[in-house]
Design brief:
This protein is mainly α. It has a single domain, classed as Dehydroquinate synthase-like, alpha domain. 67% of the residues lie in helices and 0% in strands. It has seven helices and no strands. The chain has helices at 2-8, 17-31, 36-45, 52-55, 59-76, 80-83, 88-97. The mean pLDDT is 93.
Length: 101
């Protein structure tokens, strides 16, 4: 859900789905209190984009995507976002904590 949301919030920029999944995975594992640093390190080591800047996205586009995915998860699927929804404030904190923004 996060990967698709990042692609949709990209304001006309073309982002491959796989590229969007890296930062999304990092943030969602952090949101679940998992070992997101290990995932981030592994993605960095193989050269995957892991920041908003590397994807060509703004901070606001990242936050918008997180909030959109959080709202959409209620209607379409069960995920960590169903249990722990994100607001603009909590999405920004999550993205900052993981270094995505």
């Amino acid at each position: 859900m996060i990967g698709f949301s990042l692609q949709a919030s990209a304001s006309g920029k073309k982002i491959m789905h796989g590229e969007a999944c890296g930062p999304g995975t990092i943030m969602m594992v952090c949101h679940q209190e998992g070992d997101w640093k290990a995932i981030k390190k592994a993605l960095e080591e193989v050269g995957c984009p892991i920041t908003a800047g590397q994807l060509g996205l703004t901070e606001q586009e990242i936050i918008k995507a997180l909030v959109f995915a959080s709202n959409a998860s209620k209607a379409f699927s069960y995920s960590i976002l169903t249990e722990k929804p994100l607001t603009e404030e909590s999405a920004a904190k999550l993205a900052e904590k993981t270094g995505i923004i």
